[in-house]
Write a structure and sequence with these properties.
The chain has 3 helices and 6 strands. It has 108 residues and is mainly β. It has a single domain (27-105), classed as SH3 type barrels (Roll), CATH 2.30.30.240. A 6-stranded mixed sheet has the order 4-3-2-1-6-5, with no helix packed on it. The longest helix has 5 residues, at 7-11.
Length: 108
């Protein structure tokens, strides 16, 4: 924010949301995404089966997990190149190739 150039002034903003235009964001390396870009993406299998929508991402040490929901069903899908084989931000779509049983094991 313009004019916020001291710690004292910045302290007054504690707890507030700060919004910036998307075009002001730093470009990320290939395969890296901002959370808001993935949130709301539809998730489909390589074969075209609809899995659900990304509602959140859990950041864990080994690899991040997409939280995917469809109705009352919630699944956790590792956000790795071997499983998430395609991300199309323009279409808000993530294509996955899950190992056998992953979608059943993650059903809670």
């Amino acid at each position: 924010m313009k004019g916020i150039d001291t710690l004292d002034l910045a302290e007054n903003l504690k707890g507030e949301e700060i919004w910036i235009p998307e075009e002001a964001l730093k470009s990320l390396d290939k395969g890296k995404y901002y959370l808001f870009q993935l949130s709301g993406c539809s998730v489909v299998t390589r074969g075209g089966d609809a899995i659900g929508l990304v509602t959140d991402i859990l950041f864990i040490k080994e690899n991040d997990l997409l939280v995917v929901e469809k109705g009352e069903r919630k699944m956790f899908i590792p956000f790795t190149e071997s499983i998430c084989i395609g991300v199309d931000l323009a279409k808000k779509k993530i294509v996955i190739d899950p190992p056998e049983g992953l979608l059943d094991l993650n059903d809670i």
